[in-house]
Amino acid sequence: MKLRELAHSRTGDKGNTSNISVIAYDPANYELLEKQVTAARVKQFFDGVVLGDVVRYELPNIGALNFVMFQALGGGVTRTLALDIHGKSFSSALMEMEISENL
User: Fold this and answer.
1) Distance separating alpha carbons of residues 38 and 88, to the nearest angstrom
2) Strands across the sheet with 7-14, in order?
3) CATH code of 74's domain
4) Chain segment 38-68, per-residue pLDDT in tens
């Protein structure tokens, strides 16, 4: 199944760093997201786009994960020639990640 079936997302940026939140629609699905949407998988998913590290922060009380992606915006808003200078499309792209329905 696609990640978007269990969660929604928002993005933010600061310089050349982007962050993506993954928020479970139903808190009962948080454990599944925590097990399958790892920093390593997000880094692999954005291979060639995110050049730096990806760090994951868990927020179980609100059923969310937050990923901070370094060297992700082609130098940052004032330096990149990319169409999506703030990285807002990262959230839509990540929602296409395939996950299993089982832990």
Assistant:
1) 20
2) 7-14, 17-24, 64-69, 54-59
3) 3.30.70
4) 999 999 999 998 999 999 999 999 999 999 9
